[in-house]
Amino acid sequence: MAAGLAAAELVVGLVSGAPSPVVAVGSTVIDLVPTWLKDWAIETFGTANKVVLVSGVLVVLVLAAVAVGRVAQRGDRATATIVVMAVGASGAVAVLARPGARVADLAPTVTAVAVTIGSLWWLSTRTAGVTADAAEMVGHLDGDAGRQRSMGPDRRRVLLGLGGVTVGAAVTGGLGRWLQRRAEVGAERLAFVLPRVDDALPPLPASVDVALDGVTRFVTPNDRFFRIDTALTVPQVSRDDWRLRITGMVDHELELTLDDLLARPQVERYVTLSCVSNPVGGSLIGTARWQGVRLAELLREAGVAPGADQLVSRSVDGWTCGTPTAVVLDGRDALLAYGMNGEALPARHGYPVRLVVPGLFGYVSATKWVTELELTTWDAFDAYWVPRGWAKEGPVKTMSRIDLPRSASRHDAGVVDVGGVAWAVHRGISAVHLRVDDGPWNEAELADVPSADTWRLWRWRWDASPGEHVIEVRAVDGEGVVQPDEPRPVAPDGAQGHHRVRVTITA
Ligand SMILES: Nc1nc2c(c(=O)[nH]1)N[C@H]1C(S)=C(S)[C@@H](COP(=O)(O)O)O[C@H]1N2
Ligand SMILES: [Mo]
User: Fold this and answer.
1) What SS3 class is residue 67?
2) pLDDT tens digit string along 117-154?
3) Which of 47, 229, 242 to mutate to test the pocket of ligand 1 (most atoms within 8 A of CB)?
4) How many CA atoms lie within 13 A of 343 on its CB side?
5) What is the pLDDT of residues 248-260, one digit of tens each?
6) How many whole angstroms from 229 Cα to the centroid of ligand 2?
7) Which residues contact 301 (CB under 8 A, 6 or more apart)?
8) In 60-166, which ranges are E strands?
């Protein structure tokens, strides 16, 4: 089976766009598992959940391979072959179920099955000798010398066979992976020079940060930006192949290339992006300087028909997202972005182009690897997460987080620095309050922000007395609405509640 999978990797490397059956099965599992199980996986394994999933698929394959091997060892090669074909068939079904699948996509899976069966037959011819000799030995045990004579060469034959298959698989698989990496967009991305922005943003003042170690920085570096998506392998979309189609309820459909997009007026904006699955106190949130073009201008050019109240965006991997058209057109800086913190978008964050809409959770606004914008109605279409139990609309809730002191940490009595971040993206943050052990609320000192579309850092100096204490934070948004305390889970429309940390103060 290792030989089969390795051969599949080689074909994936040779035929651009053909999916590995392992990835296809994993992706199908992602789309099929119930929401509670997916939430559990994200909660338990965090962003490593994809590694866990692929490992799970491989474990199942290893168990199947062991079963097949045992059946073949008993001499029943026909049944063993049928089991391999059945496993392969489930891979094929998964491959064909991927959005936009073509028959040619079956090439890696078919290769995997053929090579697995070939290896099975070849190896079982070799083990057949050993089994026969072993049976003979049981029949007339003629001493150690005889045993060595009958075992020696056959055992060597089997081990050599297995070794040969293993080495062949390693070489083939390695070559396949190497070819796949060569096809990735990494190199072209590094060569992508972002066009100049006419009204470029001034450099951020130091006052957007608080000078406290352990508190998040205002700008999240690209390599530390959270990643959430349903894609098991990062889609590789070359800038030359990328197209954006604007379709549906528009006066005239548009199709743009990346050069068309880059020729339009450019803007850059600091925007905080957050995930609806972020629990109270969680870190599925980040802030970047996004560069791109205004989505509203593009939509106006296409001519949005009255009544088109939902903007559905699609990515190359078939993921869909529904955004209120009114929000995109209400004057905020909804962007088709290709730049992130002065670089081309990293592949994991949507290279070459993604959506960014300030004020909405990622699942209803931030389509990565975006290829189509369809103007439609809320009644006509439910995007990916909606049938899975998430709200159709997802405005970001007012939220605040204590980064410092860490939960369960110990500190000396006296002044203890408390610091963190608060956000109510697009409404802005007007105040942050802290209290200890349900005492009176205190005002935190707020850092500066470039606009209401980002999070806001804050700090508070706490005069701590010895003992166990609970520090609690709440934010007030730009409209004066206080962050509610009543706890609510992340589903269906984002967590609610105050973040608290428990600390020990020593005398
Ligand atoms: N193509 C695609 N885009 C997607 C998603 C996805 O699954 N597929 N997930 C969305 C969700 S739920 C979030 S929170 C943001 C996260 O963006 P990031 O990974 O760049 O931080 O991407 C959004 N865009
Ligand atoms: Mo998300």
Assistant:
1) helix
2) 999 998 888 776 555 555 555 444 444 444 444 444 47
3) 229
4) 16
5) 999 999 999 999 9
6) 7
7) 254
8) none
